[in-house]
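seq/struct pair 1
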Amino acid sequence: MFEGLLTALVTPFRDGQVDERALEELVEIQIAAGVDGLVPCGSTGESATLSHAEHARVVEVVVAAARGRVRVVAGTGSNSTREATIFTQQAKDAGADGALLISPYYNKPSQQGIVEHYAAIAAETAFPLLVYNIPGRTASNILPATMARLAEIDQVVGVKESCGDLDQIAELISMVPEDFTVLSGDDWASLPLLAIGGHGVISTSSNIIPADMVELVRSWRAGDPARAKDVYYQARSIFNVLFSETNPIPLKTALALRGLITDELRLPLTPMSQAGKERLQVAMKEYGLL
């Protein structure tokens, strides 16, 4: 359902408020580049610092700007099952095509608790859900056997995997139905995951190099692994610099350097270090982005 290249959108700010005009322009840039979908209000979108009203509004703006041309999968996760259900229902009401929900963070639920969390949201909202497994941010890892149980829930249609372990992801792929979508949540793992049977990537880097990330995924899926490999190795310089500091600090800096947004972040995130910014500028110039 949600295959190919989806972009985890930043949330642009200006003077402390969501910059809706800049957000709409980012949507247009992404669609023009040929992306398959957009993911607002994820970790790249600084969802943890958005108010509930802002969260709902960002989804509404992206859905309206997309105008049905690409799928919109709204980030609706929370460590509160009730709150996640509310966010998910709001996304459904706004016209999104599905929701991406991070595994509950801080609470550190058991594997059973994780299953019941997603099952409760699915039952309440009857909406296509993507699981988001990112142990580095949640302190819990959704194991392959647990993911196989989640895949049995009708509304749970896939997973964004950021566990960082290709062996675990391979085991997961072997245990879930073929129509259960497995997407990379890490740009560095985009091509490796495709090679072991994945269906695409929810990308951070595609905010700044959307056409190249589209070409990487589509080349592989079209049976041209050599071209996919060429694009992947060229893009690695951007992958590396965009994750040299906490995401989305370098990404917002990169987009600001291109004049697309301000480099405004919300605490506890702070501006990119001067040394990091200089390395970013060098990488962007070498790539032809500046």
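seq/struct pair 2
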Amino acid sequence: MNNHFTKSFQADRWLYVFIFMHVFLWTLIPAVIRDTLPMDAMEGTTWGHQLVWGYDKNPFLNAWLTRFALFLGGGYTWVIYLFSQLSVAACFWAVWELGKKFLPPIYALIAVLLLESMQYFNLHAIDFNDNTLELGLWALTILYFYQAVIEDKLSDWLLTGFFAGFAMMAKYYSALLLIPLAIFLCLYPQTRQRLRSPRLYAGLLLFFIIILPHTIWLFFHHFITIDYAIGRVSSPPTLLNHLEFPAVFSWQQFEVFIPALLLFSILLPGKKPI
């Protein structure tokens, strides 16, 4: 790609135009054509009638935000669709900001546009649930963790703890993100230096403050969400299950990535080194 073009192209302007159009259209279209909310959003609406620190399937964040969306919308459900797209927009912005640290802005913009081609960021994202929340929360956690490791600023460590804490309060699955981040922090001499930084522990303290009420709630409710999670993944320990389930999951994810892979394959020929 021509270097003069990459420097003169105002990628940031196009990014915000794209994000605005995405949020506007994916809020408007389902609000107009759907008669009812998707299943998970309906479930969050039901949970949100009682604001407690946990529910039978998940921690509290999804239900509380659904209740807040209905409050803002005066009972109209279109705001729930808006909240879904704001989470997607947060993911787009975080990918853009992180991408610019490694690539020219136009390539960071392309990375965001490729995400739009995957169903997790369009059709699936109309359902406001824990998975949709994780799109924004995971991306923001990674962005600020990276900045914190590089620059060791208190604000970045606090934002890392903030978004990581609420990611856990959206879905326990977030542990699969946080564990690799912790391993990365301990793996290299340069990153291990941050373990001596008091700013890291300020972010860690904020993380534990956010998850503490739900943790106390678990002890008073017989760890019901843990039991539910274990029940969802439990199955007879046969060799076929260990082969079939990962294979089916891998194929399903490949199907999701096909549009992005096709678009990337179109852009790749003729690309010059940066």
